[in-house]
Amino acid sequence: MIIYDALWETMKKKNISQYYLIRYCKISAGQIGRLKKNSFVSTHTIDMLCEILDCNVEDVMKYISN
Asked: First and final CA of the chain: distance in angstroms?
């Protein structure tokens, strides 16, 4: 299972809000909702988040075995 708890921590450290991602970075509200629910998001979205936040994949998501 992939979880996105690290994303929210990274955003907080970098002082970037969900509003900023939606309004200025063109991340859809639907994508944010899926991230909050730890649902499927595309690798394109992960790539965009890493570029926006200037971070590594590990700073956005984590794998936990079932």
From this structure: 6
Residue type for 11, please?
M
Full set of structural domains in the chain with CATH: 2-63 (1.10.260.40)
Phi-psi region of 43 (alpha: psi -120 to 50; beta: other; left: phi over 0): alpha
Q: Break the chain down into helix, strand, coil percent, rounded to 5.
A: 60, 5, 35
User: Mind listing the pLDDT tens digit of every residue in the chain (66 residues)?
Assistant: 999 999 999 999 999 999 999 999 999 999 999 999 999 999 999 999 999 999 999 999 999 998
Enter the tokens of residue 18. Answer: 């969900």
- DSSP letters for 18-41: HHHHHHHS---HHHHHHHHTT---
